[in-house]
Amino acid sequence: MRDLKILFENNQKWVEKKTSEHLDYFKHRSEQQDPLYLWIGCSDSRVPANEIVGLEPGELFVCRNVANLFPHTDFNCLSVLEYAVSILRVKHVIVCGHYGCGGVKAAMEDNHLGLVDNWLRHIRDVYALHRSELDALDDLKARYRRLVELNTLQQVLNICHTTIVQEAWARKQKLAVHGWVYNLETGKLHDLNCCYSAGEQLESIYKIKMG
Ligand code: CO
Q: Is residue 211 part of a domain?
């Protein structure tokens, strides 16, 4: 029970595969990371960030949590974003939601789950904000899918509203924030066609005047 032998065996095979393709694979990658992208995704085991977009170690900076949330006061999320934008200078931040998200489903229901209900509260806020659009969808599956999309879009906005992103734009750093949704059933990504790359795109109440 204590030794997870299979995982160490898998690791050994993986190391052999990588080094057979490129002898210095790990040495080369250990020297520095230079990712172009930050990925904010769900913890769901069916949504493996690097694999979905075909990127190697060192190419994708990742933050995953239940239902791919970016609460604007969450120190974990803010710390990841700051490091990615200000130090690593990623060019793109991608929020990737996914259809079939258990967190989003739980937020549409009234079951008492415990502590996680407080985390999922952020999704209930998204529902409340878009209640007329969502309630108009009689098909519950369609409503669920739309809430997955709206939740993703809200996290994109939360990221854009941070001082971190607004400061980057103010210093003319190239940075775009995208909203995507992953389909578990097909393996395909869908672009929600929301892309923010300048402070002018923000609603005025969220704009911060940078000195
Ligand atoms: Co999920």
A: no
